[in-house]
Write a structure and sequence with these properties.
alpha+beta; Beta-Lactamase; 4 domains; 5-stranded antiparallel β-sheet; 16% strand; elongated
Length: 500
């Protein structure tokens, strides 16, 4: 039975109630109060908080406590006031006086109103509590799933703000060889391997103590003295005033990966040292090979001048052959030296302003004897009014390599053209020929060391396959780029840019 003010139409009806009816009201009120207080208690217990009741419920609760303390007395007084004669007759007394107090009726009506409001609010909060509870269970399940996934795949350690371990998972025990009882309440330095510097750990602690996440690779030591690597993320768990209270350490064992990286690094370092020794040796050898060529060419010039006597035609041919091969050998040795310098990063450039028109005319003049032998038509643009800032001798070396390459592969009475394109910030030079061209399947290797476009042609013309490698290195060293276009049977055009 639920009591509310609608149970009482007016005061007269209360006056006419029998003793049994009043007792029923009293019992109903007590039952209602017990129900409300039990519901409130259950609500607080399930919420797992001291009190999360809305402010109005807290106020009504206090009022109920006050009313409950005096309720029984007020009901008795109310009953005695209305039915005092009946009570007197029952007790056989002739005189009974009691001070009348009609406030009880108003308290009952007021209490009934509070009951009604409390029950409505309580039902709403119980529904809200049920939704909250379901959401909490869902979040708890998700949290458990996440923890299980982490435990299965990662080494988990929780430590306090001083670095003392307060929790470890099974994977930690397996890898570190320290049992839970051996590691709990121990400092994280228990795993220290002495591989890292103090500055390394100082930086780590400074980062996490300021509330920031730290990531890095750490080399640890197991209980038995073995070393292992972990890729670690340390997440500060912030408390009051956003200050770290604990640190959540998530690590992954990367020992095999790290050992492989170290081996590769050592191997690369060894290769680098070997390569440097090889380059130094090659540089020394080529220098020694080049040294005797100077007097050989000098003696050829003296013999051709006939300072030691007149030479017959056969003797002159022999001297010319010696001089030509000495010059060819000197050029090949120069290519090898240049490649070594480029590889070692020791190639030097001396840049000055250069008149392109004058430069191209000198190139044509220097290569005229070679062009004349095969009656090659050679053209350079006239009146090129362009100046660039570059290394004249390195640019000459580039042109000579490209033009000599074309001379070797164009037919008798072939054609070689030099083209100049003036752009805003660069000048593009082209060396175009009508030679045999480069097969498509070999074009991707054209700038690799010792590559020969055609072995049969190589046997006919010689060469080391370093000319284009040197060109590419010199052009890039001067700030330019080189590329080409070739069609087998129709010739090749090499392009390269030079900054102004």
């Amino acid at each position: 039975m639920t009591i509310n003010k609608n149970n009482f139409k007016n005061a007269d009806e209360l006056h006419n109630m029998s003793k049994d009816e009043l007792k029923k009201i009293q019992k109903s009120l007590k039952d209602e109060i017990d129900y409300v207080f039990n519901s409130l208690s259950d609500f607080e217990i399930k919420s797992n908080k001291i009190s999360i009741l809305p402010k109005e419920i807290e106020q009504d609760k206090i009022r109920l406590i006050d009313i409950l303390g005096n309720l029984e007395n007020k009901i008795n007084n109310f009953f005695l006031t209305i039915h005092k004669q009946e009570i007197i007759d029952d007790l056989g007394q002739n005189a009974f006086k009691i001070k009348s107090s009609m406030t009880g009726m108003n308290d009952i009506v007021s209490l009934s109103e509070h009951f009604t409001n409390l029950r409505q609010t309580l039902k709403q909060n119980q529904l809200f509590d049920k939704v909250q509870h379901e959401e909490l269970e869902k979040r708890l399940q998700e949290s458990n799933d996440l923890k299980k996934a982490l435990d299965e795949s990662s080494i988990i350690v929780i430590m306090d703000k001083q670095g003392t371990i307060v929790y470890v998972n099974k994977l930690f025990e397996e890898i570190s060889e320290y049992g839970r009882n051996e590691s709990i309440e121990q400092h994280l330095s228990l795993l220290k391997s002495d591989y890292h510097t103090e500055e390394f750990f100082n930086h780590m602690w400074k980062t996490i103590s300021n509330g920031f996440v730290w990531k890095g690779d750490i080399k640890n030591k197991t209980k038995s003295g073995k070393f292992y690597w972990v890729k670690t993320t340390i997440v500060p768990l912030l408390g009051k005033n956003d200050q770290p209270e604990q640190y959540f350490v998530i690590s992954t064992d990367v020992t095999k990966q790290k050992e492989l990286e170290i081996k590769l690094s050592d191997a690369l370092e060894e290769i680098k040292k070997t390569d440097e020794l090889k380059n130094e040796f090659a540089s020394m050898i080529t220098h020694e090979l080049k040294t005797p060529l100077t007097p050989i060419r000098g003696y050829c010039e003296i013999l051709k001048d006939e300072s030691f006597g007149v030479l017959n035609n056969d003797q002159k041919d022999f001297v010319n052959t010696i001089e030509q091969n000495a010059t060819r050998l000197e050029r090949l040795i120069g290519d090898v030296l240049d490649v070594q310098k480029l590889d070692m990063g020791k190639m030097t450039f001396t840049k000055k302003n250069l008149d392109v028109d004058e430069f191209l005319k000198n190139i044509e003049k220097d290569l005229a004897p070679l062009l004349k032998e095969k009656e090659i038509y050679f053209s350079v643009p006239d009146n090129v009014k362009i100046n660039i800032y570059t290394d004249k001798f390195r640019l000459q070396e580039i042109f000579e390599n490209l033009i000599r390459n074309s001379i070797d592969f164009v037919p008798h009475k072939g054609k070689i053209d030099i083209i100049v394109q003036n752009n805003e910030k660069t000048v593009i030079f082209s060396v175009r020929d009508n030679g045999v061209g480069i097969p498509r399947e070999k074009q991707s290797n054209i700038f690799k060391k010792f590559f020969q476009g055609d072995t049969s042609q190589t046997r006919k013309h010689g060469g080391t396959g370093l000319g284009l490698v040197v060109c590419k290195g010199l052009i890039e060293g001067l700030g330019g780029k080189i590329w080409f276009n070739s069609q087998e049977g129709f010739g090749t055009t090499f392009y390269f840019s030079m900054p102004k």
